[in-house]
Amino acid sequence: MPPESPDESDWFREHLQPHDSMLRAWLRSRFPSGVDLDDVMQEAYLKVMKAHAQKEVKAPKAFLFATARNLALNSVRHAKVRGETTALPIEDCEFIDGAEGVHEAVARNQELEILTKAIQSLPDRCRQIFTLRKVYGMSQRDIARKLNISARTVNAQISIGVNKCADFVGRYCETGKL
């Protein structure tokens, strides 16, 4: 469903569309092939646009990813009820919280946006190593092998990344500005 007005269309192009390929890859890495990614993404875009029409969405990328994740989890849940089998890593299920309210979801999404900005602020090599370790869960040895660097360098860059992210979040907490 296309956005209704030029302002909504611009907002969609600026805040959601740039994340399309990253969202698709992220969903593909987390959910079984039985989940229709196109449907999940379309519905996620629709829900985020509806939320934006009602009030400002402060962290659109985080809100989009959380919405897509929840929709994909619902798809897995419904498939299970229908008797279909899907393989979903148990660690992905701990995000399910049916009692979570809008305020908690928005707060969590804003925290995710702050963390994303913190990671984006890292130097290129440090960000690459940090992301491979913390987001994709690769071992330090595998990262070293993949990037053709020493395990000691990987360890040092992860430490630097953690410290810089902590500093970034601390500054945000003090100033309230990204």
Automatic annotation (TrEMBL):
RNA polymerase sigma-70 region domain span: 19-80
Family statement: Belongs to the sigma-70 factor family. ECF subfamily.
NCBIfam families tied to this protein: sigma70-ECF (TIGR02937)
Gene Ontology biological-process entries: DNA-templated transcription initiation
Pfam families found in the cross-reference section: Sigma70_r2 (PF04542), Sigma70_r4_2 (PF08281)
Keyword terms, alphabetized: Sigma factor, Transcription, Transcription regulation
Record has Kinase as a keyword: no
Domain RNA polymerase sigma factor 70 region 4 type: 113-161
GO MF assignments: DNA binding; sigma factor activity
Gene3D superfamilies, per database record: 1.10.1740.10, Winged helix-like DNA-binding domain superfamily/Winged helix DNA-binding domain
Protein's UniProt name: Sigma-70 family RNA polymerase sigma factor
